[in-house]
Amino acid sequence: MNLPVYLYGHPVLRQMGGDITPEYPNLSTLIENMWETMYNSEGIGLAAPQIGLPIRLFVIDADPMGDDYPECRGFKKVFINAHIVQHGEEQVSESEGCLSIPGIQESVRRPNSITIEYVDEHFAAHRETYEGFAARVIQHEYDHIDGVLFVDHISSIRKQLIKSKLMNIAKGKVRTHYRVVAASAKK
Hints:
Shape: globular
CATH superfamily: Peptide deformylase
Largest sheet: 5 strands, antiparallel
Distance between the termini: 19 Å
Radius of gyration: 16 Å
Order of helices and strands: EHEEEEEEEHHE
Strand order of the largest sheet: 2-3-4-7-8
């Protein structure tokens, strides 16, 4: 099922996600719905808060970025109860966008490498290190489960320049090709 994406300003996007257990209701269906929503929205990642659920779950399929970023080739995973345990020292700036903040892209500075611990959809434990754009995509989705948005990482001057655009998004005054829930439609 293609689910609506919650837009900037909605309170669920600022909640800290809680860990889940294998008994989480209809988890496999939820994950399937997240994949479908992400693909229909033309995203490469989607976190549960973006569909209104404050839980520590996100999906990533960065394979479409593989031509430009070889580390993304074949990178398709489900991350549950994820925790970044180490950040690399090197910082890199790249442009980012977000399904919850349509029409806005900003340069965001992030560590170029991370080590993350998580369980997959079968609740098998993993500890993995990622670099480059793959690390960036993970950090972007990880931020969502911590109640953080990519615009929180930009300078106050840049935030001032996009403030009216953000307010319009919060009011639902934005065009997307996918279903959305505006902040004004609080759950």
